[in-house]
Amino acid sequence: MNILVTGGAGYIGSHTCVALLEAGHTVIVADNLCNSKADALERVKEITGREVSFHRIDVTEEAAVNSLFAAYSIDGVIHFAGFKAVGESVENPLKYYFNNTVSTMLLAGACRRYGVKHFVFSSSATVYGDNQVPFMESMPLLPATSPYGETKAMSERILTDIAKANSAWSVALLRYFNPVGAHESGLIGDAPSGIPNNLMPYITQVAKGKLAKLRIFGNDYPTADGTGVRDYIHVMDLAEGHVAALHKLSAGAHIYNLGTGQGTSVMQLVKAFEEANGIELPYEITARRPGDIAEYYADASKAERDLGWAAKRGLMEMCRDAWRFEQRKSHGGYT
Q1: Is the distance from CB of 5 to CB of 28 less than 8 angstroms?
Q2: What is the DSSP string of 128-152?
Q3: Nearest-CA neighbor of 99 among 58, 38, 159, 68?
Q4: Among the options 11, 96, 128, 148, which is catalytic?
Q5: What gap in Å lies between CA 71 and CA 123, rounded to an integer?
Q6: pLDDT tens digits along 277-309
Q7: 334 is catalytic
């Protein structure tokens, strides 16, 4: 199939491009490069031996979206493009509401106009808010802990309603948890612009000496060691989950958690990274971050049952692969 991947030069998008190409699909990437670099797609080609068609466009611009759909016979869309920092969304909600919901609406509209019936949406476990763990797809949404979570919940509702109104539409809403790690080659990984918002790239930059020490946001949560608990999933497991969802799409809107089903605290992840790579990480405890909750992890049994997918890479692999990428970044001349 010809698959349009929005945000395909980004962290999760580039790994999903690898998984799609290895599964035999043709990939068209749309990315405005606001938090990614086009050379990631050159490294996708190095890994797979296949090229993607890259278009530097912003998918909140309707004319650009329509021209892309007119130029290709697109069979399906995987929509990653969006802002993703919980804390920033609290500080600048309008930026998030505009970018994350408008892009979804414009892409969905283009799909209707051009007869594209398969849509895979990059959602988030933040839509569950401060629910009881483990999070299950049947739970009511409580995304009000952050505007970011609200934009994901809104996009889910938009796509669900479109699927209800159009019986031929097939939508997968993938609620994933905390992607970490990198491709085992070390060629692609999480390389955010500026100071990272996510934990693992912050850890690897501290390990490299680029940042002086790790900031851990809060150690007074009601968890075993006081630090926040998350469900960390290897990014290649996550990428393969998108391909599994694409292959199993059927009429209607279908929701799947993509996680490991196990909670790991921030401090446990730090210790795992130190053990996996033989590195001691300096850190300091700071105040809690706005929008964060104490604990969440997935019940991923529905994805295993319906899609035949389950996470298979462990915490040590996540830590080793992330560090391999960070080291190769330094020696390979890319950032």
Answers
A1: yes
A2: G-S-PSSB-TTSPP-GGG-HHHHHH
A3: 58
A4: 148
A5: 27
A6: 999 999 999 999 877 889 999 999 999 999 999
A7: no
Q: Which residue has the tokens 């530097």?
A: 56
pLDDT tens figures, 142-171: 877 789 999 999 999 999 999 999 999 999
pLDDT tens string 243-280: 999 999 999 999 999 999 999 999 999 999 999 999 99
* Domain ranges across the chain: 2-180+232-259
- From 227, 231, 230, 233, select the one nearest 214 (Cα to Cα): 227
- Which amino acid, residue 221? Y
44, 18 Cβ separation under 8 angstroms: yes
Can you read off the two tokens belonging to residue 199?
């934990």
pLDDT tens, position by position, 59-96 = 999 999 999 999 999 999 999 999 988 888 989 999 99
Q: May I ask the CATH class of domain 2-180+232-259?
A: alpha beta
